[in-house]
Specification:
Elements: E1 23-26, E2 29-36, H1 41-47, H2 52-59, E3 64-70, E4 80-84, H3 92-100, H4 106-115, H5 123-135
Antiparallel strand pairs: 1-2, 1-4, 2-3
């Protein structure tokens, strides 16, 4: 059972193997992965633990948000099937890590440049990463 307001709780999909922009069918609906789910201070309040946000991020199990591409009927037990994988293959876990990373390696910069080309990644995330790249002295595309 979900404890964090999930709409779907699934098995077999992890933040390491799901990419921003991946498309899935569930029931008669179609959805697309858009961004990681990040915890806020309310998580610590709910669990009465000052370090809950830090523990949540350290777990690597942030979850991710989906946008609805096609509305449809969804029921408990419906199979989730991969319709397409984003060709840039930027994992949800990579976006989360890069969001909290203090410094970027050259491999991180390359990954961020790929992430900036993923259409499904919201513009607010792209702008955040562009600013981080500029502040790090990296070229921004």
């Amino acid at each position: 059972m979900g404890n964090f307001g999930e709409n779907f709780t699934v098995e077999g999909f992890s933040e390491n193997s799901v990419y921003i922009g991946d498309k899935f069918s569930v029931g008669s609906a179609e959805v697309m992965v858009t961004q990681p789910r990040l915890p806020c201070f309310k998580l610590g309040i709910r669990f009465d633990m000052d370090d809950m946000v830090k523990r949540f991020l350290a777990s690597g199990l942030s979850g991710f948000y989906l946008s609805v591409i096609r509305e449809g009927e969804v029921a408990a037990g419906d199979e989730i099937q991969v319709l397409s994988r984003d060709p840039q293959k930027v994992a949800v876990s990579d976006i989360t890590r890069l969001y909290i990373e203090k410094r970027f390696s050259s491999a991180d910069v390359d990954l961020l440049h790929r992430a900036l080309t993923v259409e499904a990644l919201p513009e607010s995330w792209k702008e955040y990463f562009r600013e981080r790249l500029e502040n790090a002295g990296a070229s921004v595309s």
